[in-house]
Amino acid sequence: MTEQRWPDKPVPEYTDTELATAIERHQDDTDPVTQSIVQSCIREWERRRGLPRS
């Protein structure tokens, strides 16, 4: 099985597809760094949709 890599750019530059994929694939990861990136992806997803910040 190949390791899924994060896109090589800042979270605000991810496409909607990259954001959704990153959240889906990594949301249950226990690594603190990965969780931090996932949270950044979630905040960016919410920002793009005008949702209240979590």
Name the shape in a single word: globular
Mean pLDDT: 89
Largest sheet: none
Low-confidence stretches: none
Kindly state the percentage of residues in helix.
40-55%
Q: Number of helix segments?
A: 2
Count every beta strand, where a strand is a DSSP E run of 2 or more residues. Answer: 0
- Beta-strand share of residues: under 5%
Radius of gyration: 11 Å
- SSE order: HH
Structural class: mainly alpha
Q: Report, as a whole number of angstroms, the end-to-end distance.
A: 33 Å
Describe the fold and architecture:
It is a single chain. This protein has helices at 16-26, 32-48. The N and C termini lie far apart (33 Å). Helix 1 packs antiparallel against helix 2. It is mainly α. Helices cover 52% and strands 0% of the residues. It has two helices and no strands.
Compact description:
This protein has about 55 residues and is an all-alpha fold. The chain contains 2 helices and no strands.
Secondary-structure blueprint:
Elements lengths: L15 H11 L5 H17 L6
Structural key phrases:
0% strand; mainly alpha; 54 residues; single chain
